Amino acid sequence: MSSLSLPRVLHQRKTSLELEREQFEKGQATSISKAINVIENPVKEKHVRSTIIGTFHEKGANTFWACALRLPLQENRIVAWKFCHVLHKVLREGHPQVLGDSQRFRPRLDDLGKLWVHLREGYGKLIQLYCQLLISKLDFHRRNPRFPGNLQVTKEELESIGENDINNYFQMSVEMFDYMDDILNLQSAIFGSLDMSRSNSMTSCGQCRLAPLIPCIQDSSRLYDYCVKILFKLHASLPPDILAGHRERFLKQFKELRQFYLNANTMQYFRTLIQIPLLPDAPPNLLIQAELRSYVTPVVVLPPEPQPQEEVDGQLVDTSDSGSLVELAELAQRNGSVSPDLLQERDSLIEQLQGERVRLRDELLRLTQEHQASSQRLADRMLELETQLATKDSELMQERQLKEDLMQHTEVAARCQETEEKHRAVEAKFQKLKEVYTKLRDEHVQLIRQKAEVVRQLETDRLAALAAQAALDARLQEVSLEKSLAHETLQRSGDLEGELQSVRAVLLTAQADAEAANSRLQFVSQEKGVLESELQDLLAQKEALDVRLREREERLASADVASEGFKTRLQQLFETCLATAESIVKKSVAQVGDPALSALKGSPDYLRGLAEPLELALGELAASHDSYRRDPAAGVDAVSRNAVLLSHLVADYLLHGRGTANVSPDIELGERLEQALRALGADVLGALGAVRGSGPLDLGPVRARLGELQGLVGGLASLLAGHSQERVADLVERELADMDKAIEEAARSIQELLRSSRAADSGIKLEVNEKILDSCTTLMQAIRALVQKSRLLQAEIVAQGKGTASAKEFYKRNHQWTEGLISAAKSVAVGAQLLLTAADGVVSGQGQFSRLVVASQEIAASTAQLVVASRVKAERHSPNLGALAQASRTVTQATGTVVATAQSCSELVQESDDLDVSGLSQHQAKRLEYESQVRVIELETSLQRERERLAALRRHHYRLAADDGEPQDAPSPV
């Protein structure tokens, strides 16, 4: 039976590569789960190190992501936070392919940050910022693939990455600034989230938050170093004004980074984990190239990690496949002998195992070859992708260069003008060369004709010379014969000597003519060669001029096409800038009327200071628009820049104007200021719309509206200055004096009313008036006593709290309490006046008892507010405080007496209006019932409206009290 089961077991076993892969994935999953757990403590380095080693073993990050995405990242905030820390370490120190493998998981990081940002406290905002930092790191390495994960490159490699191109350095510095901003935002949020009483650097929860700052410090030091070197390169090649934005961002980041390093150096947790460099007190001056020589690169030093002890596996031989052999050996020991069948089975099993070993070796060799082939294919594919990426980057840089060319349209226009001037110069030169060529061609034709005549004359002369030579030879022969005859006859005749001399002279003359003809022939031949060489030179010059002329024509045509394209793009850019400026102004005009900005506060002085740059921007816009009308190509840049600048200044002015209107104590003045601000925005929109046209730009309405606003702001400043000049102490004394005066006048007026009623009235009316006025007099006396007790208590409070200062200084120092006293005094004075008016109405018969009840309740509520304002700073066992409490109870009793007297008097004077229903018919009774029901409904409706009106008035009162910073008055009972 065992012999039958062994082959089946062997065929079901996995290969060694599969077992190794399974063991690797299991180990990676264990390390990742131990590093990223739910316990709030820092990540252990040994587990992160195992994960990083796994990326090198796998040459990628697929296993890491497969294990990490199975973790509860969206359920537990600690797991999400530790995942971000481990991923940061893996991206920095893992295999280079980790960056490429992690690019497709960028949306997962974005979703994770958006999920946890809704957790307002604790780790929610930190996780969102860390995810944003990791996304920025992936984007930076995607755009700059030659930077490794740890950002460590040499000076030569940095120059090679920049390719000695200013545009590349410019874009690279912007990307590094963005990367640095995310690091600084994360560290600021981490330090801000620490609670010094619970989450400090020596607690596990504090260390859990602080641990990710170590890779942030490593990244930021490298980025700072590269930014300094790149900015020095840029300032060496570009004007300083172009790099003003870069300098501002660098100086801002320098201050935040220096503070970051200082904060980290003060914590005990980092001292044993990392050596943090300290930045200098002042940043390097980028405008002075000599400071680059004194610049010191900040170096982050990590302590050496302890070497882990290697675990030695004691089981060096795999005996899993020889279990049957062991069983056979044990069986043999038990039986004392081995049967032949068992020996045969053992031999066959050994042969089978050896064959399996050979097969596995061949399979391992085949898999190794396949792995090498696939690795080679992947490497080729990676090179191809890198080539494509470099091509895309070059195309992107070309597009960016084109964009910069469009932004530098002024230079382009100048270049176009220069090209046109060169074209005109080339055209003039071409015309001159054409004239010279025509002249040379005519001279060449004339010389050819002269050459033909010279050749013809030369041929004639040669023939004549030959004939003369022949004649001379014949004559010479004749002369020789004659000479011989003459010699023979010389002696015979002396006359023949003269003839011989003449013949010799003729012979010499003929020889001279022949030599002259030969020399002339040679000269003509030389002239012919020179003319032919000059003709060849002229023909070559003509061909070169024709080629240059065609090139010039093609360049002029391409320049015309490029000029038209630039003009089109320039116009599109102009329209975009104007649309942007109009949208900014429209948004600010809409925000002026936004109720959400009612809490915005501003200063009239600051608003008046914003008018001067706005006036300058209007003048610059008008000047640039005049230039644009004269030369659109040269003036479009200035118009676009000034329009956008004007829109931003107007938006700033409108928003600060709304805040200034909110602080106006005069509501009508604030509303007029808001209306003027909206009108200013409308005038500016009209001016921006007129910029597109070709007509003149009229900025008179905008300037007039701005002048109107300045006048309103000046009035508001004067109003606020008048209010601020009143001292709080003087105000409280004045209000308390006014309150005493109002109470005295009200008491005196009530006494006058009582004397007048006794003199003029009698009977029930006199009885009613006496009761009402007596109760009111009692109430005013109680209020007067309460005010006196309150003044005594206030004097005691001021004496105890002012110390060596004056009473006015005490009121000024305790301005909120003083404002409460002022509000209470005003309420008591107003309540006294209302009570006097209501009593006068009742006595004269023109008022209602309900008004008297309401007036008494209002003055009681006002006195209660005065008591509370006086009692808030008093000592608990103060005698004056007890007297004030007793006076308050007396006022309450007097108020109740007034209310009861009013009700009883109302019943006393009310006439009996009982309805006599004895003589009513059924129809009349029904009609009266119907009218009574209608009256009841009308009264209920009127009562409900009055209650709503009362609630609205109270809300408005509370709102006004809150805006003025005063305590709210106690509501009077209904």
Core attributes:
974 residues, 80% helix, mainly alpha, 7 domains, disordered N terminus, disordered C terminus, single chain, Serine Threonine Protein Phosphatase 5, Tetratricopeptide repeat
Could you explain how this protein is built, in words?
- The chain is mainly alpha-helical and 974 residues long.
- It folds into seven domains: 15-146, Serine Threonine Protein Phosphatase 5, Tetratricopeptide repeat (Alpha Horseshoe); 151-304; 346-407; 420-570; 593-725, A middle domain of Talin 1 (Up-down Bundle), CATH 1.20.1420; 728-909, I/LWEQ domain, CATH 1.20.1410.10; 922-974.
- It has 30 helices and no strands.
- The longest helix is centred in the middle third of the chain and has 97 residues, at 496-592.
- The chain is elongated and about 210 Å long.
- It starts with a helix and ends in a 10-residue tail after the last helix.
- Mean pLDDT is 76; it is low at 1-11, 307-338 and 965-974.
